[in-house]
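Re: export button greyed out
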Amino acid sequence: MWDRNEMAARAAKEIRDGMYVNLGIGIPTLVSNFIPKNLDVTLQSENGMLGMGPFPKERYVDPDLINAGKQTITELDKTSYFSSADSFAMIRGGHIDMAILGAMEVSENGDLANWMIPGKLVKGMGGAMDLVSGVKRVIVIMDHTNKKGDSKLLKKCTLPLTGRGVVDSLITNYGMFEIISEGIKIIEIADGASLEQIKAATEGNLVI
Amino acid sequence: MWDRNEMAARAAKEIRDGMYVNLGIGIPTLVSNFIPKNLDVTLQSENGMLGMGPFPKERYVDPDLINAGKQTITELDKTSYFSSADSFAMIRGGHIDMAILGAMEVSENGDLANWMIPGKLVKGMGGAMDLVSGVKRVIVIMDHTNKKGDSKLLKKCTLPLTGRGVVDSLITNYGMFEIISEGIKIIEIADGASLEQIKAATEGNLVI
Amino acid sequence: MNKVFPSAQEALDGLVFDGMKIAAGGFGLCGIPEELIAAIKLLKVKNLVIASNNAGVDDFGIGILLETRQVKKMISSYVGENAEFMRQYLSGELELEFNPQGTLAERMRAGGAGIPGFYTKTGVGTIIAEGKEHKEFNGISYILEEAFVADLAIVKAWKGDPEGNLVYRKTARNFNPNAATCGKTCIAEVEEIVPVGSLDPDHIHTPGIFVNRIIQGEHEKRVENMTLTE
Amino acid sequence: MNKVFPSAQEALDGLVFDGMKIAAGGFGLCGIPEELIAAIKLLKVKNLVIASNNAGVDDFGIGILLETRQVKKMISSYVGENAEFMRQYLSGELELEFNPQGTLAERMRAGGAGIPGFYTKTGVGTIIAEGKEHKEFNGISYILEEAFVADLAIVKAWKGDPEGNLVYRKTARNFNPNAATCGKTCIAEVEEIVPVGSLDPDHIHTPGIFVNRIIQGEHEKRVENMTLTE
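Workaround output, generated via the alternate export path:
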């Protein structure tokens, strides 16, 4: 069973040298801690920045320098800034190689729900809908089941969608999966997890 | 009868303080010589410049600094540069107050033909179609008749159009006109020209 | 041209009315037109329709206009930081139109660029696409999104000159250049008004043509989510 | 990342093929990718479809590819400066698609921005609108224009760094930033490659993500229409 950091580390293994990557809020943000130092990877932040650096030391905090999670960050030598319209031109236009996002539900055909619980949570989709429809490869990191133990890998999402057929790969506490035309294909099983456990916790069609 | 310079001078009288103006190639370029010095007018050049200065002295010629007529020019303190897409966003979006353009034909309902003679002249419309459809007020400067003495103010244009119903005002060697719903209204008759002369030289419906 | 006004309230004079549409720059609390928002609050205009990526927090940013019930409708992509917003929305006092962030930015750009509508894949197959025209290009389905044009755009820049030329700083740029173009009028507030000619013409982000009035302000620049290393 | 290539020809290696679509920056002879055009000529690829605002002159710019009959079709707004172009076009050897200048620039931007089509008033009621979808917004008629996506974009900038970040100079910017975004691959030629970190991140015109390869070149920068005062 993978914990948050192990899931992030597994996602980081998908990143290749030279990639431009957008990391979502939450566990995806942790991924940057696990990108091997020898890889030259550029992080995009959809509020208008390419080449995102680490969080600042206190004396370098700059209110004009935040990421899409509104966290204070730093810039790098290669950094560039641009407007929101230009940022989403970059995203929508397919120039970002990979987006790593959190999710509430994923269906066996790659539908993604991660922005709204009707009547409960009214926050908004932010840039998530643009990212999933524009970025070349979308990887979701989420727990395999919800707090009640129900599967989050479903035949069909029950929540309002963020995008239809947009998820390429999925990393949960139970392992790594890929969405293929037949369903959710198991790529790797986490240490301490079993195939039986995954079967029991997965509502959507599993391909073994 | 107005000559080229007098037509340009008459057009300049339409320019108000604070305006952003785009001047076409040919006689319209001369208009800038007649803008009163006490007016603060900003010239846009559609290849990506706001705040166009005069032609340079030889030692200041810069191949990276040209106007839409590919002429060498200079910049001013207020100048800014931008991309072609941004330049035409400005034009198409209605942010330019006035465009002054040349023409081959204008019809009584304000249709403009100024870019193509089928089988003869294959140059292209450049930015003219964008300008006439986007700019708040379009003023045309042209000779009233062609070399054969035929009217260029027509009931209907014979040449391929640059825009339909786009001309607001018209300055010819015979005077100044406005396109209103009833036709071509005479605003001012040039010194030395007569109403009879204008009537004889105008095919489109004149409103006196 | 001298577009400088002495204060936010004077810059707003004659430009505000009940029911007006406003486009505001800013992302979270970063790069927001603080002084103009505060002045709009003082002017007590009502039933505002505001396009802004976020709705501020309860006591800062657009949030202060929610507190006074001046806002009828928000067009935003994310409003999760504002408890008063949630309350008014869930009780039906406030209308909300969610736009995907990129769609909102592009709608503003389109509004300023004379493009009444554009197609995007963003939102296809979601509730965002409901009731919108669908069209296929090369076998892929897209939806039509319409331009947003505001009665007034309010933006925050770093430096500006009396001609209205603006330069933004770091991620405080965000929606500001796009919002600036889509207003029938635009007021910019800047940290520093510099003399004409002191901004590099190659590096002006918003050419003065888009800006009608400009003020120099004092900015709190509140940090929403301080996150440090170590 | 180091995207620097030693020469235009090496930068083009593996990226050119007969019948390919190319988007080129430049306006007139200003800000054109001189060395890349020259290298494409040497590589002898044929049946090119080139989107470029102008077609150069007979012996400079895109003109040199017309001379060698490498171009099948031009997509341009103005080609009045090129006699060989006229000859090939009028004899039916060369296809020509006229786009209004703003429509061409926006088609490139849209191609890079994942926007397959947009509506514009430009060209309504003219031959440009023939066969295009018309749609009304608020009672006004607009036409649908489609995005342009190129196999390769070739652009010229003033300075660039090994990450591919670009800065343009004065009106040599023109179509370059838009062309750069619409290529499946993009090669930039610059007057000077500077170390990463030496370009101000607030003032980079084309972020490196759009640029795959970059070369430093020697540029003639020919003046097309020398016009002097006095």
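The first strand of chain A starts at residue 20 and ends at 23. The button fix ships in the next patch.
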